[in-house]
Amino acid sequence: MAPMSEVPSLPVSQLPADVPMLDVRETDEWTAGHAPGARHLPMSELAGRLSEIPADDPLYVVCRSGGRSGRVVQYLTQQGIPAVNVDGGMQDWAAAGRPVVTDDGRAPQII
After folding, report:
1. Residues annotated as part of the active site
2. Is residue 67 part of a domain?
3. What is 3-37 written as a DSSP string?
4. Fewest beta carbons within 10 Å, which of 13, 17, 95, 99?
5. Stated pTM of the model
6. Where are the transmembrane segments (predicted)?
């Protein structure tokens, strides 16, 4: 496995608006708050649901802080799927003032 330093990554500050994002956090984290337009596929379910990976090129992968998404990007690139880790994850996303939403209208938070 390649070292995490070799995983394609981009900080939130350099992400273009409306990039295709895959959120790999667990369901309770997603429910608490996520980026608008992101797709949800928990890291724990990834291997069994590879057919659901969006065909975006590249696909930006996000988690809470960047650790889990980095491992997912490493796995996806080994499968030939072009993916980029969102450094700093949803914590940096929210801190940068990017929008965070919920599906049920509650006030969003990053947990």
Report:
1. 63
2. yes
3. -GGGS-EEEGGGPPTT--EEE-S-HHHHHH-B-TT
4. 17
5. 0.92
6. none
